[in-house]
Amino acid sequence: MTEIAALFPRWASTWGELARTNALARSQCRCCGMQQRVDVSIQILRFGANGSPIDLRDKCMVVGCHGSVFYLVARTYGRQWITMDTRREPRKAVAPGVNAVSLDLGSRSARSR
Fold first, then answer.
1. Nearest 10 degrees: CA dihedral of 86, 96, 56, 44?
2. Which of 21, 58, 73, 76 sits CB 3.0–4.6 Å from 11 for a disulfide?
3. Within 1-113, where are the H helices?
């Protein structure tokens, strides 16, 4: 069986390109599913402007989780998030993404006011 090569947009190929185009980045843990915003400028300091978010693995920052994160990027708010991961793992192996919106945390704080 032939493998299908993943294609990524040029604006998402490196941390430097993401910064230049003001694109958005977030991470998602494979274990707990938690999504967190990623500061692209800090990633440039860590990996260099030519470093790439494609297939990059990092530790999950959630207390008590021992999973690893992959990265997602979007051109701007309201656009589709692109998974920067070429590894084809079974869907069950990756926890569904959770964030403040899916956990309904934003409306809960508004109700308490």
1. 130
2. 21
3. 15-20, 40-47, 105-111
Q: Is the pLDDT score of 106 beyond 60?
A: yes
Structure tokens at 35: 């999504």
Burial 44-71 (b: 16+ CB within 10 A, else e): beebeeeebbbebebebeeeebebebbb
pLDDT at 88: 63
Structure tokens at 42: 């800090």
Q: Are 98 and 51 in contact (CB under 8 A)?
A: no
* Cα–Cα distance for residue pair 39/103, rounded to 1 Å: 22
Nearest of 72, 76, 41 to residue 58 by alpha carbon: 72
- Which pLDDT tens digit goes with each residue over 18-67? 999 999 999 999 999 999 999 999 999 999 999 999 999 999 999 999 99
Query: What pLDDT digit, counting tens, does each position of 76-89 carry?
Result: 998 999 999 887 66
78 and 42 in contact (C-beta within 8 Å)? no
